[in-house]
Each structure stands twice: as C-alpha cells, then as structure tokens.
Design goal:
- The complex is a heterodimer.
- Chain A is built from 17 helices and 20 strands.
- Chain A is of the alpha+beta class.
- Chain A is globular, with a radius of gyration of 23 Å.
- The relative contact order of chain A is 0.12.
- Chain A has 4 domains: 93 residues, 2-Layer Sandwich (Uridine Diphospho-n-acetylenolpyruvylglucosamine Reductase, domain 2); 118 residues, Uridine Diphospho-n-acetylenolpyruvylglucosamine Reductase, domain 3, CATH 3.30.465.10; 117 residues, Alpha-Beta Plaits; 96 residues, 2-Layer Sandwich (Alpha-Beta Plaits).
- In chain A, α9 crosses α11, α13 runs antiparallel to α14 and α15 crosses α17.
- Chain B folds into 4 domains: 101 residues, Alpha-helical ferredoxin (Fumarate Reductase Iron-sulfur Protein, Chain B, domain 2); 46 residues, no CATH class; 125 residues, Rossmann fold (3-Layer(aba) Sandwich); 118 residues, Rossmann fold, CATH 3.40.50.1860.
- In chain B, 50% of the residues lie in helices and 8% in strands.
- Chain B is built from 23 helices and 9 strands.
- By secondary structure, chain B is an alpha/beta fold.
- In chain B, α1 packs across α6 and α3 runs antiparallel to α4.
- Classes of the chains: A alpha+beta, B alpha/beta.
- Chains A and B meet through α2, α9 and α12 of A and α3 and α4 of B.
Chain lengths: 473, 425
C-alpha cells in the first residue's frame, strides 16, 4: 500500500470529527505548523486540527488514544524549546479557537478561561475591575494560558508574585487516555495532593488542559521604574543580590546587556542609557507612600553598587516603552544576527556576577556573540547565542556553547530551565540534573496518565543515546 | 530565520525578500496584530505563517499554488510590521512575492473576472464613472448575484458627484509658506472629490500654494497590492513625469496612495526609472504629516461640543508610521474631544480591493471595527483614507448607528468654515 493511501485511511476517522476547513492536511497548511519559536527543529505532522469546542478536543484525544497516534497540543507556538514541535506523523491540536473567557468574577477574583485565551487578554478583561493576571511572560501579548500552564511560565513580575503555578486554582483536563478530570478548586486551600501543581509544568505530557481557573490580583496603586546603567555586566549582576539583601521586594528586577540594549533601542526607542555595558531595571510597586519610601532606599543601594547613571520612568507612557523594549528584546536581537539560540538556565542570585563573567569568557572562547537579557531577580539567565547557520559548523558550535552554559548553571547549584521548559532542546541535559531513579519516577507518573506515551511523544525525556552520553560524561 | 533562497534568481528584489525572511525569528509577536489571524486563528493566515510559506516557495519547496490562498488573504495592512520587534520589512517580501507568484498561480474564472473588472476600471476615472453608472442599473438584481459581485455592487454610491474640474493652481491665503503638488488619483476623485477639495482649502488656508498637476493618474497602489507589478509601474510612470520638482512636497490625502508613492523607489528597483522614482518618493507626505510639520492656525472652536473617535488608517499608521500627526491636528479644534477606540491598530477590512475579493473576512473585520468604534460613543468617526471611510460607513450603517465618517482634513475644513458635522445620514 502506498504511503498516501495509508495516511488517508488513518485520517478517515478523524475527518469524521471535523468539518472541511478545520482539519488541515495540505502541504502549505502543514508547513505553517512545522516549528514553534525554535526553528532549528522542524517536523511535519500528519494533520492539524482546529477544534472549536472542548468536546472536539476530547473526541480527538480519544481517537488518538484508540489508534495509537501521537498528538501535540499547540497554543501560539512561542515555545523556545521545541515544546510545540509536531511529532512526525502525529496530530497537532491547535487550540487557538478555544479562546473564550468563560467567567470573570471580580468578587472572587477569578477568571475561568479556555486554554487558547491569550495571556494578556485575561488582564485586559480584568482591567475594568482593577484586577489583572500577574504572570507576565515577555510573550504575553501572544502566548496562551494553555502554553503557560504546560511550561509553568514565568515573567519579569514573577519575582514578587510567583510563576504560573501560583496562579492556577483549578484545571479541567483531558488525559492522554481520553479520561476527563478536574483538578483543584476555586479556593487556594485544596484537599488532598496538589494535582494542579503536578499538571502545571508537565509540558503537555499528561494531556490537554481544557479549562483553566486563574487567580486575579488587584492592580498596584503605583509603580516606580528605575533604570541603572553599569560599566560591566558582572557589576550589574552583583547589584541584584545587593538590592534583594537590602530587604526591598521589587515587583521586577531585570538585566539587559549591551547587545540587547542596542537591539531593543532600535525596536522601540525607549531611551535606554547609551554606552552602558549593562542595564539594571528595577520596578517597585504598591501603595504610593510606601513605594515613594522604597524608592529612596533603592536609589541608595543602586548608587552604592556602582551604577554610573540612574534614570526613572517619567510617566506611564515612558514606563510602557521601557517594558516594551525589554519584553521585545529576544525578538529584537533578530536585528543583529540571522539566527540565535535562546538559553534558559538558573543560578542562585548571589552567583549571578560569577555566572555572567563566565558566560563572557565562554563567548570569547567560542568566538560567538552572546546577548543577555533576563529575569535577574530570580537568577533566571537568558543568554542568546548569536550564530549564522549558513557558516558551516556554527550551529554546532552554538549548541556546544549552550551546553557549556547549562552545565555551568548546574555546577553553580542552579537548573537547566527557569521557564522555557525542556521540550526537545534540553532533553539531553535532564539526565545531568536528575538521577536515573528520579527520571524513572517521572516516567512512571507519565505512564500512569498516558500509558501509550502519545501526548507530546519524544519530548522532555532523554532518548537512549542521550542517556548513554550522559552516563559516559 | 535560516533560509536557502537562491536570491539571484529573483532579480533586483531577491536580496530584499531574503533579508525580510532572515530578520524573522519566528517568535509570533506579530500574531496578535494580524487581522486575518484574529479572525481565522490559524497559522497559515498569520504573518509568521505567511513569511514561512513564502520562504518555502522561494526556496522551491512548496508550489506557489499551495501557498496562494493564504498569501492572497493577507490584507497588506502591515499591522505586523508595527508589531515586529525584529524589524521585518514584510512589505519588501510580500509585494515582490505577489508579483513573482501571480504568473505561477492559476485562478478560477470568477476570481479572474473580478480581478480584471477591478483592475480595468478602478485606476481609470473615466472608465470607473461609466462602470458605476452601469452598476447602478444592475443594483436591483443584487440579491441574485454571487457574493463577491454583490459586495462590489453594494459599494456603489447612491449619487455620483458631477465631474468637477480641479483648478490647476490655488493661491495661498496670505503670505506663501510653502508650495506643494497634490495627488488626486483615481477612485477618490470619482467617489469622494470633497476630500481633495477639503485638502486644498485647508492647505491654502494655512499659507500653502497648491498645484494640481494635470497629467497625473492612479498611483498604482491597487495593482501593486495584488501583484500586478507591471501595471503598477505603467501607472506610476505617468506620475513620475507629471509631478514637478520645484515643490516642497507631494501631498496625498489617501493613506493607501501615500504609502504606495513612498514605495516608488522599491517598485522600480533595478529599472531605469529607479533614481527618478526615489526622488519623487522622498517628497511624498501625507496631508496630516505635512500640516503637522508646517504648523497650522488653530481653527475656531466648534459651536457645540462633540466627541470624535480617531481610527488609524493602516496605510497611514503601519505603512507610513504616521500616528501622532493627525491626532495633534484634531487636538487643535476647540470643543472637540478626541478619543481612542479599542483595537485602533487593527484593520477595518477595507484594504484596497480586498473587501471585494475576500468579502467574508472583510465583513467580519468591518463588524468588529464598527463595534469597537461605537463603544466609544462618538459623534463622528475620523480617519485618513477613503477606502476605510467607505468600509466603516457601511458597517456603522449595518450596526444601526450611521455616525458620520470624515477625513481628518474634512474635520479641519468644517471647523475653519465654522460649520458643524453633517447630520446622521
Ligand atoms: C520572544 C519570546 C519571549 C518569551 N518570553 C518568555 C518569558 O518571559 N517567560 C516564559 O516563561 N516564557 C517565555 N517565552 C516562551 C513561551 O512564550 C512560553 O513558553 C509560553 O508559555 C508558550 O505559550 P504558547 O501558547 O505559545 O504555547 P506553545 O508554544 O504552543 O506550547 C508550549 C507547550 O505547551 C503545550 N500546550 C499548549 N497548550 C496546552 C494545553 N491546553 N494543555 C496542555 N499542554 C499544552 C504544548 O504542547 C507545548 O509543549 C518566550 C517566547 C518568545 C518567543
Ligand atoms: S514578530 Fe517579526 S520576527 Fe516575530 S514572527 Fe512576526 S515577523 Fe517574525
Ligand atoms: S499585512 Fe496585515 S493581514 Fe497581512 S500578515 Fe501582516 S498583519 Fe496580517
């Protein structure tokens, strides 16, 4: 039997679930879904489906389960680790049309949303009530709540508020075997084990979130946003620990280095201090008098830490521009280089300075530029390794450099991912961070929910060759 | 994004197309800004998806025919350009791509007929007049026509303005502060000559001598946007010689025309006229941009307070980057409160001949736009492009609240003349 006939037969049952136009199989349609935001990986799925109801999602998962066909849930495809990369010959379940906010209760301060709702749209809907959804990944104008849940996404303001997992109260989920379950409830005090916590960050390996109940928080009365310029990246890194040690709890503490400042400035003209080797961005938030008092203290700490220029956001528009530049910085680096790898490692806050100095050294050693723009308050590094894929060997060198940086993070007592997930990209490093027993427990958990390993098959867990390599090193 | 586009195969624009692909990092930041993605929620109808598909075609990995439905559905609104942090020059990919692909894609006969009808009439005022008279005869049969022809007929105005002569030079009021030439173009001249008239009066009022060159014609935008590069150049060539060099600016009051003329240099890339085209393009200014730069005399305040909602025309905001100028101009009118609508940066669905070729998407966008504008409870809707005005007017009417829709210069003109806004139509 030819491959085409085979495919057609496999798809027959799935076609029955969707009207024409919502099951995509033509070459152009499939091509568009080949990659997420990490284009170094590409895979062509068998089909892409566009469900519009949760029943359709459930029916699709059950069909996949029955036929042993792997599936990948997809939000906006902004994953930087290959998380929403299709499984070859599998189904992509694109959730973008499930984008309704089902309930917004300002009294209870909760929002119940479908998984394809865009992060920022939750805050927009809550704004008239003086509320917002706190986790703010830089991709928040486009990334979906489903994707945020799968990756336990963070953002600049998660320093104060915690990551996605701190804001998900309940989930309705279709597990990979087709069973529909509810985890959690509307209050923070749950009964029994924290199954919501288990699902959040599971990278789509357990099943698909169909409905998410989110916690909303009141919008702070006032903000003070401070930009401090430093002559070296290391100095800015060291300043972070000093700010935190002073007892202040800023909403956000971010760092941008020279390359990312250059790129972001070109994109938004935010007026970042020029010539700085690094920029520390600190935002205080809370009630007016309290913030005012904290500002005095912050300015003292920052000056003592060696900042040579300090600037305050003049007004809300200026503040928005500063943040727009910071949040668009990954993309803006596209102006400087045809390709780059975004890394996502964590180090203890007190060791940021050392880590940054070491990254600079590695960058010189490999002869590849590295731009740094990251959530400094959390010690969550994002080195962007710039390379040119057309030059033979450069991608490989970039990957090696990335590996060295991740190992550096582990060595300094940190982790190989802060928020972008393991996905495809970092499978091989999982075995360096966890023991074989740890991994086995994770595998058993996964198989409990997904016996056929059809949900996002091939992601997160190292494949055998990678395990052997890890054992040998 | 890495690519293997054989740039030399695509002539003078090959490198520019490849550069746009290269700058795209596939981050998806443009998704939220894309009207077709917002309506359809599928990756092929997003900027990121389209860039990827065009790359695949240019690399030879995908048939142009396969990519055609999705590239065709692009409004060319350039919302993605404003949204993109990486500075992807999407237009420098899209326009030449469409020209390249148009020869390689076969279309159904109704599509071809529609394309032929629009391209053979709209850019030529004489033919357009004749066609409109004909269309009015057809109108009673509208319910029986195919959807797209119906959409076309629905845009035919009730009354056709008389053909008005345009004086070739208008003297400034008072001392001359500047001298400009004005584009009167094609469709607008036939359907809404009152906009040009307002433009000329407001310019003259502010000390600007206005020349209206006789030999000018359609700017070529409509043809350029649908991939008919040769026709666009043929039309544009006429303007290259029609507009004089001894003016401070060439003024357009239709955002679509302005953005097309600003791209003349690119349109003629690698052709003998390139240098001349570049020079003309460099002098083109939208009327709001020019007036704002010049500084205007504040008009007397309106007799009664009114609330205006300003809706950006995509080809002014996204293609020309003109955002603040019209807002500042409106701000000089006393008693006029100017408010921002929700989703101002999202296209209304007009987009040249788009609303004729893709009536479903266009209508959905029109409905959303009307909803967003009406939520601001305006007395008047103000924008900077005739196509948007026609589309917005139709959808406000359909929503049951036909608030007047005016061009920025019309508001200034009414204010200078001490007149109020037209009654609800
Ligand atoms: C420029 C840029 C900046 C970024 N900044 C940040 C940042 O500051 N912080 C941060 O944490 N991340 C950041 N990211 C990464 C990315 O945006 C996040 O991981 C985001 O949560 C992904 O959301 P998405 O909707 O795009 O999901 P996708 O990429 O489509 O999917 C991500 C994962 O979620 C799974 N998934 C999607 N929906 C569901 C569902 N309903 N149920 C179960 N699994 C599901 C997918 O299978 C996949 O494994 C950034 C990305 C880019 C491109
Ligand atoms: S925002 Fe720019 S770089 Fe990102 S996907 Fe869109 S076009 Fe590409
Ligand atoms: S030009 Fe407009 S419709 Fe086309 S891809 Fe860009 S945002 Fe979407």
């Amino acid at each position: 039997m030819t491959e085409a006939v085979d495919r057609a037969r496999v798809l027959q049952g799935l076609r029955a679930l969707y009207p024409e136009g919502r099951i995509l199989t033509r070459p152009a349609e499939l091509a568009a879904y080949e990659s997420d935001a990490l284009t170094a990986f590409r895979a062509r799925p068998l089909a892409v489906v566009l469900p519009e109801t949760r029943e359709e999602v459930v029916a699709t998962v059950r069909w996949c389960h029955r036929h042993g066909v792997p599936f990948v849930a997809r939000g906006s495809g902004t994953s930087l680790s290959g998380g929403s990369l299709p499984v070859p010959e599998g189904i992509v379940i694109a959730l973008n049309r499930l984008n309704r906010i089902l309930r917004l209760d300002p009294e209870e301060r909760i929002a119940v949303v479908e998984p394809g709702v865009v992060n920022l749209d939750v805050s927009r809907a809550a704004a008239p009530f003086g509320l917002y959804y706190a986790p703010d990944p830089s991709s928040q104008p486009v990334c979906t709540i489903g994707g945020n849940v799968a990756f336990n996404s963070g953002g600049a303001h998660c320093l104060k508020y915690g990551m996605t997992s701190n804001h998900v109260l309940a989930l309705e989920v279709v597990l990979a075997d087709g069973e529909v379950v509810r985890f959690g409830g509307e209050s923070l005090e749950g009964v029994g084990p924290d199954l919501v916590g288990l699902f959040v960050g599971s990278e789509g390996l357990f099943g698909i979130a169909l409905e998410v109940t989110l916690r909303l928080v009141p919008k702070p009365e006032a903000y003070r946003t401070v930009l401090a310029a430093y002559r070296s990246l290391e100095a800015a890194g060291d300043a972070v620990a000093q700010v935190v040690a002073s007892g202040l709890l800023p909403g956000a503490v971010e760092i941008m280095d020279r390359l990312s400042i250059e790129a972001a400035e070109a994109a938004v003209h935010a007026g970042y201090p020029e010539d700085a080797a690094a920029l520390l961005l600190v935002e205080l938030e809370g009630e007016e008098p309290e913030v005012e008092a904290e500002l005095v203290e912050l300015l003292e700490v920052v000056r003592a830490s060696g900042a040579y220029e300090v600037r305050l956001a003049r007004d809300e528009a200026d503040r928005q521009r500063i943040w727009k530049g910071r949040k668009g910085a990954f993309s803006a680096v596209g102006r400087l280089s045809p390709d780059y790898l975004v890394q996502d490692g964590v180090v203890p806050r007190t060791r940021l300075g050392i880590a940054l100095a070491e990254i600079e050294r590695l960058s010189r050693k490999y002869g590849l530029r590295v731009a740094n723009v990251f959530h400094a308050g959390d010690g969550n590094l994002h080195p962007l390794i710039l390379y040119d894929g057309r030059q033979p060997g450069q991608l490989q060198r970039a990957e090696e450099l990335a590996g060295e940086i991740l190992r550096l993070c582990i060595r300094l007592g940190g982790s190989i991912t802060g928020e972008h997930g393991v996905g495809m990209e970092k499978r091989q490093y999982l075995a360096e961070m966890f023991s074989e027993q740890d991994l086995e427990v994770m595998r058993r958990l996964r198989r409990a929910m997904d016996p056929g390993e059809i949900a996002n098959r091939g992601k997160m867990f190292p494949v055998p060759q990678q395990l052997e390599a890890a054992a040998a090193s | 994004m890495l690519h293997e586009i054989p740039v030399d195969r695509y002539g003078a624009v090959g490198r520019r197309m490849a550069r746009a692909v290269e700058a795209c990092v596939h981050c998806g930041f443009c998704l939220a800004a894309c009207p077709t993605y917002r309506v359809l929620g599928e990756e092929m109808d997003s900027p990121r998806g389209r860039i990827f598909l065009m790359k695949e075609v240019l690399e030879g990995h995908l048939e142009p025919q396969e990519a055609a439905p999705f590239v065709d559905r692009c409004l060319g609104c350039f919302g993605c350009v404003t949204a993109c942090p990486s500075g992807v020059a999407y237009g420098e990919l899209l326009t030449p791509y469409r020209e390249y692909a148009s020869a390689k894609v076969s279309r159904s006969w109704p599509d071809r007929l529609l394309r032929w009808l629009t391209m053979e009439t709209l850019p030529y005022p004489g033919r357009l007049r004749a066609a409109l008279r004909l269309a009015r005869l057809v109108r009673p049969a509208a319910p029986y026509l195919p959807a797209r022809l119906r959409a076309m007929v629905s845009l035919v105005p009730d009354r056709l303005s008389r053909q008005r002569g345009t004086a070739s030079t208008v003297a400034p009021a008072g001392a001359r502060r500047a001298r400009v030439a004005v584009l009167v173009g094609c469709v607008q001249r036939v359907l809404h000559p009152e906009i040009h008239e307002a433009t000329v009066r407001v310019l003259a009022r502010n000390g600007v001598e206005v020349v209206v060159p006789d030999d000018q014609g359609c700017c070529g935008a409509l043809a350029m946007h649908v991939g008919e590069g040769a026709r666009a150049r043929q039309l544009a060539r006429r303007n290259l010689s029609a507009f004089p060099d001894d003016v401070d600016a060439v003024i357009t009051d239709a955002a679509g025309c302005g953005s097309a003329m600003k791209e003349y240099g690119f349109l003629f890339a690698g052709q003998p006229e390139e240098e001349q085209a570049r020079k003309l393009a460099a002098r083109v200014r939208d009327v709001s941009e020019f007036l704002d730069g010049l500084g205007i005399e504040a008009p007397p305040p309106l007799l009664a307070p009114a609330r205006a909602v300003y809706q950006d025309a995509c080809h002014l905001l996204h293609a020309q980057g003109v955002r603040d100028a019209p807002r500042r101009l409106l701000g000089t009118v006393g008693n006029l409160e100017v408010v921002e609508p929700a989703e101002a940066e999202l296209c209304c669905g007009s987009a040249g001949t788009y609303s004729l070729e893709h009536p479903d998407v266009a209508a959905e966008l029109g409905r959303r736009k009307a909803r967003g504008l009406l939520a601001a409870d305006p007395d008047v809707v103000v924008t900077g492009n005739v196509g948007c005005m026609v589309q917005i007017r139709a959808h406000l009417r359909a929503a049951g609240r036909p608030v007047p829709v005016l061009h920025t210069v019309q508001v200034l003109d009414l204010a200078y003349r001490g007149q109020g806004f037209p009654r609800l139509a």
